[in-house]
# Entry
Amino acid sequence: MIKNKKEVDQVISKFIGKKGSLIPLLQEVQNFEKYLSKDTMRYISEKTGVHLAQIYGVATFYTMFRLKPQGKHVIRVCKGTACHVSDANTILKAVNSELKLENGNDTTKDGLFTVMEVACLGCCSLAPVIMVDDNTHGKLTPEIIGEVLKKYK
Amino acid sequence: MTTIKVGLASCGLAAGAGEVLTAIEKHLAGKKHKIEVKHTACIGMCFAEPLVEFVSENNESIIYGYVEPEKVGKLIEDYLTGNPQKENVVISDILDAAENKNYAKQERIVLRNCGRINPESIDDYLANNGYKSLEKAIKEMTREKIIDEMKKSGLRGRGGAGFPTGLKWQFAYNSKSDKKYIVCNADEGDPGAFMDRSVLEGDPHSILEGMAIGAYAIGADEGYIYCRAEYPMAIRHLEKAIADARERGFLGSNIMGTDFNFILHIKEGAGAFVCGEETALMASIEGERGMPRIRPPFPAQSGLWGKPTNINNVETFANVAWIILNGSAAYSKFGTKKSAGTKVFALAGKIKNSGLIEVPMGMPLKDVIYGVGGGMKTDKPFKGVQLGGPSGGCVPAHLLDTIVDYDSITSTGAIMGSGGMVVMDTGTCMVDVARFFLNFTQNESCGKCTFCRVGTKRMLEILTRITEGKGKMEDLDTLQDLATNIIKGSLCGLGQTAPNPVLTTLKYFKDEYIAHIVDKKCPAGVCVNLMKYEVIEDKCVGCTACARKCPVKAISGSVKNPHFIDQDKCIKCGICFDVCKFNAIQKS
# Structure
């Protein structure tokens, strides 16, 4: 199902016919749809004439695109080199345990949080780091994760 | 008038610079102090964030670090009464400061404006020789002369490969076409590197100016900045810089009254490391999956949409305006014969002064780490430094006399790369680090070449096995074998360099691999499958400190009774070990 059909139509008409516009088109659609559902991709394909296979190919190639619904807040746990040597794995485990995420689930049942692992947030001097929505939190320890996440609950 | 500058780059904000700024504004509100508060970006001393700089009328500066919002009021008042506080001074030209000596060893060309000017103000940039270089280039120099200057400067591509920039421009210039493009690669994907982020956030106009000069030289009239979406502030600053430059006539049609036209777009990356490779980057700008293409044809002959295209990295472009304004001779004065100029490094890991530095090429690694970088952060000794991210390698302690230049670093098995330097101490397991990088590259492999796609996966499986204590000695030969074949059988830099971290750790830290395989031990105490935490019942007094601190509630037990750690729940974070005052937790 497409939630914001009007907005999707607007984005399509903004980019249609412009060269190299598939990625920004999908980015903008995802901004308000929160993820790219099968229906959304099919609809974009019908409207733009771009093959569905090509849209799906691009959507699955780049880590930014999500094919599943996403929580209200996105937690990006940095797994960059500096964070890795500063024990990012324990931070990730503490986040998952705080949010009671198990068995590879990345979104909480109440739909409040989605946890993602990212390659590097570029704040290496503050490792280990997580980013909740657009806010970066650095110099973390497993004990303070609960406190950090409380602000978003 | 006194100026107070607050560093508001991503790293500063994460450390609380926003709260410090609010506290300063609140303190000054309603008072009649003659103080101007300015925003700036990252000066590179990230370890001491939040940073606040006081600049007097006579341009004397004091930079304070570790500033707390509650204490800024007193900091300001003490400064104004002529008794500036002496604690937490990081750099100053009038006071003794911890980092004065280390800072003096730097040469700042790329970072000339970072942390000094307000990146969102084109007037600040103009007041610091901004766009003078572009004016000189398009009004006084021929295209050939510019390319010649770039060649003479000896500048080599700062993205990592080190191809001479002037020569690259020459190729694009030589291609005959009605349309050409210039592209800035700002898809800084190396984990552990943040040089480009800091320049984009702190001095976006220098990139615009460098690109405009390049466009003029090769005959392009359109350009793209391909910036990763994980850098929202960089994108915001670039957007503002482009809008301001257009308004003032430094971009657009008939720039500065000449017949030179140049328009610039930003393309947000969508998260794919391989897009740092130039042909994959172009595929991504065209809206496709970012998969590398076979070269030749090189981008200079057939690039974006089949047109001649020149691609340089952020740091390369940041050098251009300085070189054109000051001349190639002034630039090649720095550095070594084959690697001229300076290089920006992002210091991270177990180093004291983590942050951003710029040093002349030719400086020994030892001086970078122990001099400019201030040495180790922990009391554990130095073990190795990872250069060049997942494409690079680990340089061990006995090679720290190696100098920073493309060829010397390559001879160790690492690469210069884009400038990430992650320092590791004896608490870092090298097998785990190699596994970490392989995990990254196999995830990011685009899948086009079989050896890269399948080979890195097999290498990762072997490394994982070793870190779990299930390795065999013949695994080491298989790793070596796979590495050689992946290098030979891959089309682009990602695959060709992916085995480097394994090869260098095998070369310099083979005994650690053997310890994992034969003794089933991780000497650094990192590999969780080879260790566990247990309570020594006789020593445990039941104070409950460990149970309260355990982030996953793996410790159970009642007051004054010995506690117990549930090994299935334990994440081996070591907090119980650290908090126990009775040495009742043992690590084995």
